[in-house]
Design brief:
The chain is α+β, with helices and mostly antiparallel strands and about 350 residues long. The protein folds into three domains: about 1-80, Winged helix-like DNA-binding domain superfamily/Winged helix DNA-binding domain (Arc Repressor Mutant, subunit A), CATH 1.10.10; about 90-130 and about 235-340, GAF domain (Beta-Lactamase); about 130-230, Enolase-like, domain 1 (2-Layer Sandwich). The protein is about 45% helix and about 20% strand. It is built from 14 helices and ten strands. The strands form three sheets. The chain has a five-stranded antiparallel β-sheet, with helices on both faces. Strands 4-5-6 form a three-stranded antiparallel β-sheet. Strand 4 (about 135-145) and strand 5 (about 150-155) form a beta hairpin. Helix 2 (about 30-35) packs across helix 3 (about 40-55), helix 6 runs antiparallel to helix 14 and helix 7 (about 175-185) packs across helix 8 (about 190-205). The two termini are about 40 Å apart.
Amino acid sequence: MSDQLTERELRVLEAVVQTYIETAEPAGSQTIARRFGLGVSPATIRHTMSELEEKGYLYHPHTSAGRVPTDRAYRIYVDGLIRQPPSDPERRRLESEMETTPGTLEEILRRAAQVLSVLTQELGVAVAPTFNELVLERLELVTVSSERLLLVFNLRGGVVRTIFVQVPGALPAASVQRVAQVLNERLSGLTLAEIRQSLRERLRDAEASSEGRELLNIFIAEREDIFNLAEVPEPVVLGSAQLLAEQPEFATNTGMRGLLELTERRDLLRKALEARRRQGLSITIGGENLDPRLSNFTLVTSSYQAGPLRGVIGVMGPTRMPYEKIIGLVEHTSRLVEGLLE
């Protein structure tokens, strides 16, 4: 799209975007001429802005003579940015906050999202790796009743999940513990996906009492359900929405309702973020988001990877955001998360 624009149009467009990002007010030709020294008169700038409006890069609210960037304008602006690392104070604060985080995966992501919220004044977001990719470290079996066992998954990265397993009747405690021992001996160190694929073979010759064999057969028969924790909804981790709510875009009741709906609809955000696991840096602006409920927002995310684990960290905010600053912070945070997970 940028090949349709002259050098002057690109410079004026960049000036309008920068002005609107900083002030949240429509940019007028006098303001642009005074602030950016483009070497042309306000009248020429005004004419150029009119041309940009005709091409779909600017629009002006009917109550104002100034112009506001469209999603297309932000896209050209972002694509032309030279990525800058965070400033030294921002980098030091990020590293200081993250270094004091407990070592569990969930705590690392929660702290990362919160720190990004504070430093960017946007909403920090994070998605953990899918459970399929997580490695089993240890299983525990706890008898809850005559017909139910509690199965505790201790997964690499400090992630703990529990599910109930139905059994046909009361089982001796010794048989339950023997089965737990067999499962740990033969499954520890494997991903959940690997366990589902190979469980039958791994348990075929396992020694157990008749009750224990019955329980092992339940694990074999129901392996697709028992070891498919990916089906358990993993909520998106969010930082503080309060800082984002203070921005001008959410001053109206309509804007605030839209923001509250998004923070409550974790499934919507998860779907938008899941596709970014393998994309590195990803920026979707306004209408570029597939879900129309995100059409007033920008998502800036960076994928992180530690061994087989892949997840996403980033921020969500209005399309009017300081992209240059935010991109650097998001990328640096994703590298910090990788270091902590490794």
